[in-house]
Amino acid sequence: MSGKPVLHYANIRGRMEPIRWLLAAAGVEFEERILKTKDDLQKLRTDGCLLFQQVPMVEIDGMKMVQTRAILNYIAGKYNLYGKDLKERALIDMYVEGLADLFELIMYHEFKPANEKEKDLANIMDKATNRYLPVFEKVLKDHGHDFLVGNKLSKADVSLLENILWLEELKPDALAKFPLLQSFKARMSNIPSIKKFLQPGSAKKPLIQEKDIPSVIAIFH
Amino acid sequence: MSEKPRLTYINGRGRMESIRWLLAAAGVEFEEIFLQTREQLLKLGQDGSLMFHQLPLVEIDGMKLVQCRAILSYIAGKYNLYGKDLKERALIDMYVEGISDLMQLILMFPFSPPEAKEKNIATISEKATERYFPVFEKVLKQHGQDFLVGNRFSWADVQLMEAILAVEEKVPSVLSGFPQLQAFKTKMSNMPTIKKFLQPGSPRKPPPDENYVATVMKIFKLD
C-alpha cells in the first residue's frame, strides 16, 4: 500500500487543481482516481467515502478528507507552507481567500456557454486587474521579498502563481501592468518542485476541451 | 485606546454573524461600527482599510483583517478553539466548511424573489436534513462526547450551533429526526458565553428583514 495521497475527482482542473498545485509545490507525489461517469461518483457516495457526498476527496494520512479549504489547510500545515505563527497564518489566509474569490470566477469560465464567454472574460479581467492583482503587486513592492509572507514560500505564493498562470492562458497580457508579479512568476516557476509541475506529463491538468464539457457536467448533475 | 476587536459591517447578520458568534463564544467583548451609506464603504476602500474593498472588516491585534474565513481562523487559533493538532484542525475545518455551504443558502435566502422563497426553504430543509445534519448526528452518536472534535469545545461546535438555530428559524421542526443534535443544542445553549449571547441585548443580530435587504443592496450595490 502506497503512502501517497490519493485524489478523487473528474479529469478537469475544477476544485481539485489548487490541491494538485499545493502537493506538487510541496514536492509530494500523489495518485489520482479519475471519475468518468456519475456512477463513479455515486459509488464513492454509497461506499460512504464522501462526508458531504461531494468531491474533491483526498485520502491522506488515514483520513478521507473533503472540502477544498480543509484539504489545502492540512497540506499547508503538514508541509510548512502556512507561515510561522498565527499572524502570518492570518495574512496567508487573507491572501488565499481573496484569490479564492478570483479563482471561483476563473474556474467557472471554462463552463460558460459560448455566447457568454466574452462578457465573462471581461468581468474576470476587470476584477483581476482592479481588485486582486494590485494588492499582491503592492505587497511585493512594500517588502521587497521574494515571497508574499514571512520571506518564505507559503500556500499564498502557490495560489497566486496558479491564478496568474490561468489568467495568462485566458489573456496573455494579463500581467502587463504588474512588473513585480511578472518577476514573481518567473522566480516561482523556477522553484524545482514547481518547475517540474509545469512540465508536460505532470499532474497539472490542461484547460478543458469543449467536446468534453457535457460528460463532465453529467458527472456532477 | 480600547483593545477590543472592532467589527465593521452593516447592522445585520450577513457575513459578520459567524464572527460575532465565535468571539462571543470565546468570551471576547468587541465593538461594532455599522455602515449606513455606500459612501462610507467607498471611503474605507480609499483609506486602504479594506484589502479587497469588501466587508467584513475586523480590526484585531493591530491587523485589519478581511475575508471571513481568515478572520474566523485567526480567532479560533488565538482562543484555542481550533483543536490540539493538525488532524483535529483538519476535522474542524471539514465540519466548518460543510456547515458553511449550508449557511450560504441561508445567507442568500433573503435576496431571492418572493416566488422562489418557498422552494428555497424546501432546499434548505432538504440539504440540512439529508446532507449536513446526519453527518453531525452520527459524529456525536459515535463518540458519545459533548463536543464534535477532541472532546473539547471548538469552532466547529459554535458553527454548528449557529447553523441549527438559523435553520430552525426557517424550518422549526428540522431537528425532529436528530436526538443527538437536540441534546447538543441544549448543551450549547447552556454554556455561559453562548447563553449570554442568546439573551436579548447581546450583539447577536435579528433575522434579516426587508430593511436589511435594502441596506445591503444600497451599500454593496449588488445587481
Automatic annotation (TrEMBL), chain A:
<dbReference type="GO" id="GO:0006805">
    <property type="term" value="P:xenobiotic metabolic process"/>
</dbReference>
<dbReference type="Pfam" id="PF14497">
    <property type="entry name" value="GST_C_3"/>
</dbReference>
<dbReference type="InterPro" id="IPR050213">
    <property type="entry name" value="GST_superfamily"/>
</dbReference>
<feature type="domain" description="GST C-terminal">
    <location>
        <begin position="85"/>
        <end position="207"/>
    </location>
</feature>
<feature type="domain" description="GST N-terminal">
    <location>
        <begin position="3"/>
        <end position="83"/>
    </location>
</feature>
<dbReference type="GO" id="GO:0004364">
    <property type="term" value="F:glutathione transferase activity"/>
</dbReference>
<dbReference type="InterPro" id="IPR040079">
    <property type="entry name" value="Glutathione_S-Trfase"/>
</dbReference>
<dbReference type="InterPro" id="IPR004045">
    <property type="entry name" value="Glutathione_S-Trfase_N"/>
</dbReference>
<dbReference type="InterPro" id="IPR036282">
    <property type="entry name" value="Glutathione-S-Trfase_C_sf"/>
</dbReference>
<dbReference type="InterPro" id="IPR003080">
    <property type="entry name" value="GST_alpha"/>
</dbReference>
<protein>
    <recommendedName>
        <fullName>glutathione transferase</fullName>
        <ecNumber>2.5.1.18</ecNumber>
    </recommendedName>
</protein>
<dbReference type="Pfam" id="PF02798">
    <property type="entry name" value="GST_N"/>
</dbReference>
<dbReference type="InterPro" id="IPR036249">
    <property type="entry name" value="Thioredoxin-like_sf"/>
</dbReference>
<comment type="similarity">
    <text>Belongs to the GST superfamily. Alpha family.</text>
</comment>
<keyword id="KW-0808">Transferase</keyword>
<dbReference type="GO" id="GO:0006749">
    <property type="term" value="P:glutathione metabolic process"/>
</dbReference>
<dbReference type="InterPro" id="IPR010987">
    <property type="entry name" value="Glutathione-S-Trfase_C-like"/>
</dbReference>
<dbReference type="InterPro" id="IPR004046">
    <property type="entry name" value="GST_C"/>
</dbReference>
From TrEMBL, chain B:
<dbReference type="GO" id="GO:0098754">
    <property type="term" value="P:detoxification"/>
</dbReference>
<dbReference type="InterPro" id="IPR003080">
    <property type="entry name" value="GST_alpha"/>
</dbReference>
<dbReference type="GO" id="GO:0004364">
    <property type="term" value="F:glutathione transferase activity"/>
</dbReference>
<dbReference type="InterPro" id="IPR004045">
    <property type="entry name" value="Glutathione_S-Trfase_N"/>
</dbReference>
<dbReference type="InterPro" id="IPR036282">
    <property type="entry name" value="Glutathione-S-Trfase_C_sf"/>
</dbReference>
<dbReference type="GO" id="GO:0006805">
    <property type="term" value="P:xenobiotic metabolic process"/>
</dbReference>
<dbReference type="InterPro" id="IPR010987">
    <property type="entry name" value="Glutathione-S-Trfase_C-like"/>
</dbReference>
<dbReference type="GO" id="GO:0006749">
    <property type="term" value="P:glutathione metabolic process"/>
</dbReference>
<comment type="similarity">
    <text>Belongs to the GST superfamily. Alpha family.</text>
</comment>
<dbReference type="InterPro" id="IPR050213">
    <property type="entry name" value="GST_superfamily"/>
</dbReference>
<dbReference type="GO" id="GO:0005829">
    <property type="term" value="C:cytosol"/>
</dbReference>
<keyword id="KW-0808">Transferase</keyword>
<dbReference type="Pfam" id="PF14497">
    <property type="entry name" value="GST_C_3"/>
</dbReference>
<dbReference type="Pfam" id="PF02798">
    <property type="entry name" value="GST_N"/>
</dbReference>
<dbReference type="GO" id="GO:0046222">
    <property type="term" value="P:aflatoxin metabolic process"/>
</dbReference>
<protein>
    <recommendedName>
        <fullName>glutathione transferase</fullName>
        <ecNumber>2.5.1.18</ecNumber>
    </recommendedName>
</protein>
<dbReference type="InterPro" id="IPR036249">
    <property type="entry name" value="Thioredoxin-like_sf"/>
</dbReference>
<feature type="domain" description="GST N-terminal">
    <location>
        <begin position="3"/>
        <end position="83"/>
    </location>
</feature>
<dbReference type="InterPro" id="IPR004046">
    <property type="entry name" value="GST_C"/>
</dbReference>
<dbReference type="InterPro" id="IPR040079">
    <property type="entry name" value="Glutathione_S-Trfase"/>
</dbReference>
<feature type="domain" description="GST C-terminal">
    <location>
        <begin position="85"/>
        <end position="209"/>
    </location>
</feature>
